[in-house]
Amino acid sequence: MSGSRSSADDPQNIDPDVRETAAGLATGDRSDTLLQTDGLIKQFGGFTATDEPGFAVEEGELRCLIGPNGAGKSTLLKLITGTHEPTAGSIYYDGDDITDLPPHERVKRGISMKFQVPSVYGDLTVRENAQLPIQRLVTGDDRNRRIEETIAAAGLEGYEDVPASDLSHGQQQQLEIGMAASLQPDLLLLDEPVAGLSVEERRGIADRVTALNEERGIAFVVIEHDTDFVAEIADAVTVLHRGDVFREGSISEIEADPEVRRIYLGEGGEE
C-alpha cells in the first residue's frame, strides 16, 4: 500500500540541512498520520461550509464523522477527494500536499470514496460491476482474482450472475464498498453507508467495513448518523459542527458529552 511507512527512521539522525515540507512533517514517514487538513476553508458564496477543521486520520484507523445536519461532513469528504476545491487551506496525505491534485490523481495515491447513493449499474451483473473499477488496471488472471476478491469483500458469493438491480439496497451498498476497496486504497471514505437499511443489512455493512479494516489495513472515514452502527465499528469519533471539529473521542465519550447532545437536539443546520 502506498501509505506504508518505515518505523526505523530516527528523528535524531535526520540531516539538519534537509528541510521537510509541511506535508512531510504532518503525514510523512516519521508520522503515523495518513491524512491531515490545515486551515481548510470552503465557502459557497457568503456561506462557510468548512471552517478550518483540524481533521486527521491515522494509518489503519476506523474513524466515524458525525454531527447535526448542516455540519459540513459531506463537504469535508468532497474536499478530501477533490470533488470540491477549497477556498483556502491545505490537505496533506501520505507525505504530500494533495490540495491541488485532481480527483483521479488522488485515487492513484490511494484515496477512494463511496457516496451515499449507490451508483452500481443495475443492468450489469454483480461480476460485471465488480470488473468496472479495475478493468484498465489489471488483465488476465490478476483481473479475475481481483474480481473474485471484490465479490467476496462485498459478501456476495453466489450472486455473481445476478443483475445488480435485483439486489437489495443493502447488497448494492455492499457491492459498491467492495468495488471501492478493489482499487486497493489506503483510505476509504463512506458517506452514510447504512442510511435506510434494516438492522440485518446494517450488520452486513459493519462486517464488510471491519473486515476490510482489519484484514487489509484500510483506514476509513465514515459519515453516519446511526450511533449504534458507529459504536459497532469506530476506533474514534469526530463530531463536526458549523464546519469545524467540535469534539473527538471514543463513542462512549461522545455519547456522554452534554454539549454534543445539545447540538443534536436543536442546533446546527447549516450545510
Automatic annotation (TrEMBL):
Query: Where does the signal peptide begin and end?
Result: none
Q: Write out the entry's keywords from A to Z.
A: ATP-binding, Nucleotide-binding, Transport
Per its UniProt record, what PROSITE patterns does this chain match?
Answer: ABC_TRANSPORTER_2 (PS50893)
- Show the ranges annotated as biased composition (Polar residues): 1-10
Note the superkingdom of the native organism. Answer: Archaea
* Listed SMART domains: AAA
* Pfam families for the chain: ABC_tran (PF00005)
Picking any one GO molecular function of the record gives: ATP binding
Q: Which residues form the ABC transporter domain?
A: 35-267
The segments labelled Disordered in the record are 1-20
This protein's record includes keyword Lipid metabolism: no
Q: What is this protein called?
A: ABC transporter ATP-binding protein
